[in-house]
Amino acid sequence: MKTKIISLGGTTEKGYAALCGEYYKRMGEVTECDLKPEALPADPTEGQIRAALEKEADRILGEIPKQSLVIALCVEGKQVSSEELAELLAKGALNGKSSVTCIIGSSYGLSDRVKKAADCRLSLSRLTLPHKLARLVLAEALYRAGEINKGTRYHK
Description:
Layout: E1 2-8, H1 14-27, E2 30-35, H2 46-63, E3 68-78, H3 82-94, E4 99-104, H4 112-117, E5 120-122, H5 131-150
Parallel strand pairs: 1-2, 1-4, 3-4, 3-5
Helix pairs in contact: 1-5, 3-5
């Protein structure tokens, strides 16, 4: 299954990029789409944050391929096991989804519009993770789920 990771803010640290790249190489077709977060003042108001999230939503939604299983990563999302993620991806494929798109929001999260457009909302952890680490955890989780679905010994 093709994979696309949309992230508001990328990682410029070579170590994280190399680690993610290793999983992407193993997975096959993976595309990263790093979008620049909207500029906000140092102490933004709730209205400014909402407006920024809506502008980001326009760009995010425009990047989602048709027939893609859309997963929004957000704090209120469900935490799942590796097996449950594998099952989610397998069901998506059975339901005609030709790809999976995972969305990592800005430091202020994702707009409700993006969350509603998603097929599911997932949380990687109850801990707050920096983008670079969230992307790495996501890369490994997707790779592991794919290996579970293939029946390999990676997931013991």
